[in-house]
Amino acid sequence: MKTTRLQPFHTFTIMTVFLLGTSIIFGTPRLVEDTWIVDLITLIPSCALFMLYTHLLVAGNSNDLYSLLYKIWGRLLGQILVLGYTVYFLYIASRNIRDMIELVKTTLLADTPEELLILLFTLVIAYASAGGLSAIGRVAIPISGMVIFFFLLLAVLLGFSGSLDTERILPLLSKGISPVINATWKSTIWFPYGEIIVFLVFVNGLGNPRRFRVLGLAAMICSCFVLTFSSLLQICTLGKENMKFSVFALLDAARQINIADFITRMDALVAFIIFFSVLLKCSIFLYAGTKGAAFVFKRSFKKFTLPCAFLIGGYSILVTNNYGEHVEEGLKHVIFWLHIPMQLVIPVATLLLVWIRNLKGEE
Amino acid sequence: MLRKGLLLFMAVILCLLQSGCWDWVEVNQSSMLTGMAIEPGKNGMLKLTMEVLNPAEAQRVQSSSGGPPTLLYTMEGKSISEASSRMNEMVERKIIYSHIHMVVVDESIARKGLNQIIDVLQRSRFVREDVLILIAKDTPASDVLKIMYPSGQYSSWKLRMQIIHFYRSWGGTPKSTLYNYTDAILSEGREPVLAAISVEGEVNNSENSKDTTSSIPRAIVKCAGSAVFKEDKLIGFISVPDTRLLNMIRDKITGTSFAVPVDKKQGVATIRMDPIHTTMDVTLESGRPQVKLSIAGEGHVSSIDTDLPLDTAAGYRQLEQMESNFLNEQVKSTISRVQREFGVDIFGFGEYMNRHHYSEYKLVKQDWNGHFKAAEIEVSSRIVISRSDLKTRRLNKPDVGQ
């Protein structure tokens, strides 16, 4: 395997933008009123989850997930698991594209057929991921700059247009702390933080596991603060009750921007944020997916890039019939049937096996 | 070479695709919708009157051919959405909804409830959150849009400017945008208010652009205070002075003038307040809400009819005292009038309590409006008058011998 390692800064930005990605637009799932507390609290379990992942690599003495699975579970089971992860990553990528398409279709290009949008977009992500990790790393720098810049611009403009009312945060925890904790383990750990498992596939390119652990934790803390700030911004602009009804909370907040009847309709900023972050997220998932296919079928990953990209694109249309189904699937079924097994059960089982094998090895 | 040629070909194709001609609209084939009036139509349908800009005449500067700046079209439909998407039955241009200024709602529709019309406004991506929602009082909603003005401005623009400036200078109209309404509907412990407008004069004589040549407008739209709602249903109106005090109690006022009576006769001192702030505290004492309002403001004297010694500190103190007492009385009477006549909390006392004393509010949440009716109000104001423009005392000839 070619080891073109990324600079630490590149690794950090990739992971930060990856975590902010779509969740900055859709916000924390609004299961409870105090979403920003959910954002803050989630940091602790998700950091623990991340420590589990890196420990898995260290204990298994391996530098990427696929070869570890192959080594631990044996030839047949290992290949099945690797293929399972491949499908899982491609599936998440197609859901992300669908997220973006939903926003674009409702706000910007209502009359453009979505097939065309998806075709153009998949060509771009195929090109990005065919360039490999170093290309994704390089593209992550301007993307992170733009995402953070547009987001801060939104915050500043909202502040100047006088839409922020800090009173709206109150009352705090009106229904007690337990719904907040519930929301944490039911959704926020798995999305966006749990999705960081995709990086285990190419730790090799990101530096050694120890450095990967430090950078990953830094990226998680950083994006946790940005997401909390984003939730606070949405609450202060829209109010808790209003947020529950909005499809894209940050977009609805951006619609409130009005500075002297001159700077208005900043919807485009939100669209830019989602374009860029979905571009990065999808190319990472696509890269991880093609790596998995390459691992199983022993071919160059570039051979799989274009077919997989079209697969993602096509599947993003087929994945749901309407927005309601999309949200329900994302909040319920995907979490229980995909996220928890793939992000928790299989890694924990693998870790147990690693321990058993290590013990046996010592005897 | 072939590879490069292929790349170039692809780039050209992509450029063509990127031009985004999918939803093109030519400027000369489109027209902006600026205002909308909603009235009850026949058989329970909604009658929609749309004010569409006449591009050649709107915003005319010097010369004009005398045509109207806007055209009105009327359409009936089961919902606003249905009627507005059928507008092209009679209009030749594609209508652009993004620049709508206001929606005027007829009183009878508002009494039945705004829920039947509000969703399309909240949902549509074209309608901005700061579109004004106004209630036409004692007049058909479409009349508001029918009046033409000599200045050449179209009705909804004139009315929007009027409302913005009236709010800024005197605070006599509530904040009445779509967003304010949504916010109030969703908030716990506060009922919505919207601006009310009414038409004065003869509408029939001012629909024609020839009628605008007179310097005395035959008909004019004026702000008529606020419409008070209970949930989404209109239950009554409060006057312009009460609306100003409502704005003041909610701490949503930028500046205003008070005419404070300063002696037993007709003498008043007009004091321009800028800025003025109100803080509230609402607590529950033995099941009865206690509202404490404290008003703090700074102002200057803009006119005075009596010989109050405005060149001494004592004179200022006296005037400050008079204004404080006056304000306390006015605020109390406004609140008690609302308590008595409507019995709905439009001031946001419940909202404050929900936010700051949640455990107490939980006890009265079920019937907050009932508790509001019985609330005890306590007002204190601290007014500072800092200057008196260009003169000290009122100019008069000093009495002989003094």
Rg value of chain B: 27 Å
Helix-strand category of chain B: alpha/beta
Q: What percent strand of chain B? A: 25-35%
Question: Could you tell me the number of beta strands of chain B?
Answer: 13
Q: How many domain modules of chain A?
A: 1
Largest sheet of chain A: 2 strands, antiparallel
Distance between the termini of chain A: 33 Å
Radius of gyration of chain A: 20 Å
Helix content range of chain A: over 70%
Average pLDDT over all residues of chain B: 85
Helical element count of chain B?
A: 12
Walk me through this protein's architecture:
The complex is a heterodimer of chains A (about 375) and B (about 400). Chain A has about 375 residues and is mostly helical. Helices cover about 75% and strands about 0% of the residues of chain A. Chain A has one domain (about 30-355). Chain A is built from 15 helices and two strands. In chain A, helix 1 (about 10-20) packs across helix 7 (about 130-160), helix 5 crosses helix 14 (about 300-320) and helix 6 crosses helix 13. Chain B is α/β, with parallel strands linked by helices and about 400 residues long. Chain B has two domains: about 30-240, no CATH class; about 250-395, GMP Synthetase, Chain A, domain 3 (2-Layer Sandwich), CATH 3.30.300. In chain B, the strands form two sheets. In chain B, strands 1, 2, 3, 4, 5, 6, 7, 8 and 9 form a nine-stranded mixed β-sheet that branches. A four-stranded mixed β-sheet of chain B has the order 10-11-12-13, sandwiched between helices. In chain B, strand 11 (about 270-285) and strand 12 form a beta hairpin. Chain B is globular and about 95 Å long. The interface of A and B includes residues 106 and 258 of A. Chain B: Keywords: Germination, Lipoprotein, Membrane, Palmitate, Signal.
